[in-house]
Specification:
five-stranded mixed sheet; disordered N terminus; 10 helices; 19% strand; globular
């Protein structure tokens, strides 16, 4: 007798029941959960495959952005960024200009939001992607193979018409507004460096609106009772142009040279990674690399990812390989893509469906 339908139905019921609590993963911990619900347990073959991958002892490049006003130092920074972007697709930055107290207050704000009274958090719980502020556990909950051990507060700074600070939860309002200003400035500096590293004018990527608007995703990963059975975030690449990540403890891993590399937090440091759209417009010169986040017995792990994804909501804007980077020896790898089509593909896929760029090959 075929019971697969019944099993699938049970899974859907469990997903719905979890979602309807509107309390997220933190709600399971508050209920003193000792074992993971089945929806969080990864398939046996996936767990077995993980055992075959080595854990590397190499480290992601760290780039000091200090002294950029000096021409020779700036040239050195551009070269370091170019090399990291072509090989790793990831690097960490220090001396980036964002004060330490701004970073600390952003982490504290996300922690306060998640650890406040659950009834207050529930006011923001929604799967409506058009909402400027939304609290959710697993945006792809009903599309992914396995639910993941994290809750997320998203705050969009992409639409100037949606800029009322009162929409942001009081627990993290001041911190988020202040951090947003600083991280936007850093994003613009990085886009200038990327432009020069590609052999273009400093303003090239900014003039393409790559830095227009950004979103903060505050992830909260509670301590997990059985971390070896689940993940905080599965293996994926980031969908936008650029991600700037603030993190308070380890857990982030990059898949590099067929092995997982741990990205240890540096005091005051930020992780920078290339997104799919920057790989697309650079015609594959810069790499959008796979990464994931482990679950852990220790917690909470808190991270704030700032995504620069371009002018979302503009119907007719499209992106393809930059013409100056195309030649007979270097033909386009990717097609011209409507940003709205790309976003729709992302929103209707699960995070572990790698890799979105494959759909847009030339």
């Amino acid at each position: 007798m075929d019971t697969s339908g019944a099993q699938e139905y049970d899974r859907m019921q469990e997903l719905k029941a979890f979602d309807e609590t509107k309390a997220g993963v933190k709600g399971l911990i508050d209920a003193e959960l000792q074992k993971l619900p089945k929806i969080f347990v990864r398939p046996a073959e996936e767990l077995a495959k993980d055992l075959n991958h080595k854990r590397a002892q190499i480290e992601v490049p760290v780039i000091d952005l200090g002294g950029m006003e000096k021409a020779d130092r700036r040239q050195q920074i551009v070269e370091e960024v170019r090399l990291a972007s072509e090989t790793w697709g990831f690097f960490q930055v220090v001396n980036h200009g964002i004060p330490l107290n701004v970073l600390d207050e952003m982490i504290d704000g996300i922690q306060k939001f998640n650890e406040q009274d659950v009834q207050e958090k529930k006011k923001y719980y929604t799967r409506d992607n058009t909402r400027r502020v939304r609290f959710i556990s697993n945006h792809d909950l009903f599309r992914s193979t396995t639910a993941n051990w994290r809750d997320t507060l998203t705050i969009s700074f992409s639409d100037p018409n949606q800029s009322d600070p009162k929409e942001i939860p009081g627990s993290c309002r001041e911190a988020a507004v202040e951090y947003s200003k600083h991280v936007e400035k850093l994003g613009n500096i990085l886009f200038e460096i990327f432009s020069v590293a590609l052999g273009l004018d400093p303003g090239h990527l900014r003039n393409m609106d790559c830095s227009k608007g950004h979103r903060l995703h505050g992830h909260y990963y509670p301590a997990c009772p059985e971390p070896e059975l689940t993940l905080g975030i599965p293996k994926h690449t980031d969908a936008g142009f650029l991600t700037i990540l603030l993190q308070n403890q380890s857990g982030l891993q990059i898949f590099f040279q067929n092995q997982w590399v741990d990205v240890q937090p540096i005091p005051g440091g930020l992780v920078i990674n290339i997104g799919d759209l920057l790989q697309l417009v650079s015609n594959g010169k810069f790499r959008s690399n796979n990464h994931r986040v482990l679950a852990d017995h220790l917690g909470p792990r808190i991270s704030v990812a700032c995504f620069f994804s371009g002018p979302l909501g503009m119907e007719n804007i499209s992106y393809g390989p930059i013409k100056e980077l195309i030649s007979e020896e270097n033909p386009p790898i990717y097609k011209e893509v409507l940003l709205s089509d790309y976003v729709m593909k992302f929103l209707t896929s699960s995070l572990d469906e790698n890799n979105l760029l494959n759909y847009f090959k030339a």
